[in-house]
Amino acid sequence: MNRRQFLASTAALLVARPGFAQEGPFRMRYYPISPGIGLHDLTPARDGTIWFTAQGKGLLGRLDPRDGRFKTVSLGQGAAPHGVTIGPDGAPWITEGGQNAIARVDPSDLSVTLFRLPERFASANLNTGVFDKDGTYWFTGQSGYYGRLSPKTGEMNVFKAPKGVGPYGITVTPKGDVWYASLAGSHIAKIDRVGGNATVVEPPTPNQGSRRVWSDSRGRIWVSEWNSGHVAVHDPEDGSWKTWKLPGERPRAYAVYVDDKDKVWLTDFSANAIVRFDPAIEKFNVFASDKANANVRQLDGRPGEVWGCESGNDRIVMIQTIAAG
């Protein structure tokens, strides 16, 4: 697709769809990727590009938003990548469930390095990863595991989750604490970064299905609750919880992301939408996709922009928020 074709295909999509509450001129743009590629997660890079995982084809891709062009690289035979994040080295690091490994891709030549989990954890079902302030990579495995990898030495430790299956989303707070969410276990947990033990924290809503987590600037842990359709926040400083139900009937909150202004973004499979929540005024904005079955499974961003993968349509979506306040 050349630049003219790309701009023509997206020109009509630059304004958020009408009919929902608006606080400012949010703008949406879609970037089509190859049909059937199986988009899952993404993360913005320092150079302005967007790295994405294509679980359906075992690929990692890099999108240039300036012209909509992208490149992909195979992660290996049987690859099925899930999460991706940028490391302190500027490279994308991937939870590569198909090969039961953590993968690093060199941004300069797209060469792939694999750090495989020990054989006894062959069914870990890797999900997401994050770097702490010391440069250690922490990851989750939905079959009941979480672990850490030292990129400098290659040393890896894998731990059994205290309540078994479920570890899914993971986040790091500004002061360096690491938390994960357990979907099947319906809880969140804080990891002791030295000893590796995890302490379970139970949300107030039973069987809520805590799917993903993200820290705000104050170190509060925001949780997308898949089963309950709530967004919840836990403050580790005082142990408190607050919850809000997403708008609409039977919401299904999948992804959560907190932007640089501490506004909370979620995806709702039932509403086929990305949802913005302002905790200060307890108000939601809903941005519905222009196509059915968008199924945005993850969100990430940088100042002024929120990015997500429409796994159902194999498109990347961006919402500009610079003028939103």
UniProtKB/TrEMBL annotation:
User: Which SUPFAM superfamilies does its entry note?
Assistant: Calcium-dependent phosphotriesterase
Any Pfam family hit: Vgb_lyase
Q: Which InterPro entries match?
A: Vgb, Vgb_bact, WD40/YVTN_repeat-like_dom_sf
User: What is this enzyme's class at the first EC digit?
Assistant: lyase
Origin, by domain of life? Bacteria
**What is a GO molecular function of this protein?**
lyase activity
Q: Which cofactor does it need?
A: Mg(2+)
Question: Keywords on this record?
Answer: Antibiotic resistance, Lyase, Magnesium, Metal-binding
Q: Hey, which family's this protein in?
A: Belongs to the Vgb family.
What's this protein's name? Virginiamycin B lyase
Q: Which organism is it from?
A: Bradyrhizobium agreste
